[in-house]
């Protein structure tokens, strides 16, 4: 085709495209439509994953106001009986002793000498008379002990002696006896014994030679007693 004919052909097409008689009518717009949904698939059956960590606890809320109602009435029932008083393990205990030459007691052979203890170290129940006698205020089981130092006038004389803890000037609770000795004698006796309130407990000494009962911090002459924490009746 010649260049002239090719040009004429484009001219014809362009002219036809712009001719209104050649344009068809405008169609109405196509209405939209939705395709129907398909059936829901089956729920999955896999294992549920682990639960995540719990979040931090929130702040505590403010405390509500205190109630303002009146206090209820006090009960009017009778008061129950008072229970028994508990046992005090130190309610009865004392210790007294001799101290130095000014408190020594001279002894004559054959006499029964009640020993004197002028220095009271303690007395919880006020039961020792500061001289020679322990008088318990209540029934009980008591630990009683005494110790002495006896110096004979003749240090080479052979002699014997006895040391006793006596009850009510008659019954001997415990005693010790030594014979065929010479020089200074040291002796201790003790007992656990049931006493009644008002009993009198003393320490007595007897020897076959003259001498002196002496005491000092190193070899004390002493008398002591204490109530044990028992509540059973005295047999």
From TrEMBL:
Gly residues bias (residue ranges): 64-80
InterPro entries documented for this protein: Leader_pep_exosporium, Tumour_necrosis_fac-like_dom
Segments of skewed composition (Low complexity): 50-63
Superkingdom of this protein's organism: Bacteria
Stretch list, region Disordered: 15-84
Name of the protein described by the UniProt record: Exosporium leader peptide domain protein
Organism: Bacillus clarus
